[in-house]
Amino acid sequence: MKKNRIVLIVVLVLAVAAIFxxxxxxxxxxxxxxxxxxxxxxxxxxxxxLSDKNNNTVTLSREEEGRWMVDDxxxxxxxxxxxxxxxxxxxxxxxxxALAAHNNVIRELAVNSVxxxxxxxxxxxxxxxxxxWFPHEKLTKVFYVGGATxxxxxxxxxxxxxxxxxxxxxxxxxxxxxxxxxxxxxxxRDYAIFKKELPQIASVKVEIPxxxxxxxxxxxxxxxxxxxxxYPEMQLIxxxxxxxxxxxxxxxxxxxxxxxxxxxxxxxxxxxxxxxPFSIITLTDSSGVSKTIKTYFKEGYGDVDMxxxxxxxxxxxxxxxxxxxEDFVLVQYFAFDRVLRPRSFFVKD
Length: 349
Description:
Strand content: 25-35%
Helix content: 10-25%
Strand order of the largest sheet: 4-3-2-1-6-7-8-9-5
Largest sheet: 9 strands, antiparallel
Mean pLDDT: 88
Shape: elongated
Distance between the termini: 115 Å
Low-confidence stretches: 20-30
Number of helices: 6
Structural class: alpha+beta
Radius of gyration: 30 Å
């Protein structure tokens, strides 16, 4: 009886061991931790650090309100951040790099790749996602993103402290994801100049230095009425087109620039800024905070009009100085025409 009990215990132990080995075995030839590039819970991501071999770096961090910042200085583009988080969530392994190409891919990653550090909010005590105590930020993933495969349908990636690179793709996406991990700061910034709805606007001042008589101030009286004043005299103007003035104020809801001209020759930039701006727009919001944009003509391309006269300035784009004079940018008239109005535009004949 005692002997049978010992045999039964041995059989049970061996059965448990066999079950454990069965469920813990992997059908793959590599450890899952070496290919775990995807981020399952992107809502817990608090910070993403990107850097390349040319000393380009950027830190994308989430504020408590959910808004993302670039290097804790600029607002990040919501569209670009959503795309990055979706990309990280959907990353999938296509295959490990073939042995014949292994060394070449490793060398390429060593000299031409982007390092990605992912930080998430985790809990020191986490019981089945039901009881969560002591949250803190933790570095959860570090991997390197290389270039595209020859088919342009995948990207080479490598986990830190690993020597096994993989071909990574995103299901449903025809292309490669490498460009979505750029460490260039300007690629992540929100290009908004003004983003104010009508109730958020207290006043807008438009100065036209080349013709001061066309300068003005429009105030939002917060009672479905607006007022028009001359500037700098601040004389109240009556008999103006209130509907046109309201339409003007609602034009500041989403005004963006096209690009940051950080690579422009400094001499050319200084020459443009030394010229007289064709308008200076200052928006003051309901909390008293003001933001100013100075606009400058952009040189033309030698075109002529229907009468054969040379067109001196670009009819599609102009230059602007924004963000307290920090950024020199390119702007489309198509986006800004609605708020580039002289005073005479609002005054009825």
